[in-house]
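yo, histidine kinase is done. seq:
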Amino acid sequence: LLMGILVLTFCGTLATGVILVWVFLRRERNLSELQADFVSKVSHELRTPLTSIRMFTETLQLRRGDPLSEDRCIEALTKESSRLQQLIDRLLDWGRMESGRRIYELGEYHIHEIIDEAIKAFEPTRERRDVELEISIDASIPKVSCDKSAIVDSLVNLLSNAYKYGGSPRWIGVNVVAIPKGVSISVRDNGKGIARREHKRIFEKFYRVDDLLARQQEGSGLGLSIVRHVMRAHRGRITVDSEPGKGSTFTLILPSKLSSRSQAVTGSQPA
Ligand code: ADP
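structure:
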């Protein structure tokens, strides 16, 4: 009987060991698949504006002296290099977040300041084409403790998306209301909306909805994953409410007070 118990214990331990090794190997394989996927997506994203820059530089050299071509090429080169710059900035931002190295400096702010700054930063994009902007801010909004520039960047991200994927004529509504223990900031557009099955995926890094509109628009697929990271670091969240044909509403939920212990948070939670 003792021998039987020993054999059974040995077999049990062996089986547990085999299962653990299998789980570990599977995780390693998933990680290296994710890494390879990441490298290929980043390379692709960087190569696209670089290819355009090379192409326009060659055209500029070939058509030197033709003012029309020169103007067109310089305009395209400026656009493509700023796209590259934005992509690199986003990647650096995202890298700092992933490694938990991004430090958020908390302060107390009136929501008006944050909205004003976000609208100002969004203006250059707005000037390109017409967009009607409708802003409504509840009178009784409490102050929020947050990293102002991170929240402004997040709002600019949502406004730029509402513009890029918006309807015609473009309309964007910003609505700020007080909620129990916090503030809710919604950015609404009149665009073509997002199918329910995509609602979770659009927050994944590098994910872009595979449709004509998204393909026509510049983007890295990193914006919303960064916003989600920022919101989690603030103990808040981002939600989406959208249906095809009915526009989209993205809402940032910010707690009005973060724990007084945390003067700065690193946001090391997974994105
Ligand atoms: P991108 O750089 O591609 O805009 P984001 O992470 O900001 O990256 O968004 C991910 C995807 O979610 C976009 O590619 C787009 O397909 C979809 N999306 C985001 N915002 C909107 C919106 N307001 N309306 C429709 N689709 C949107």
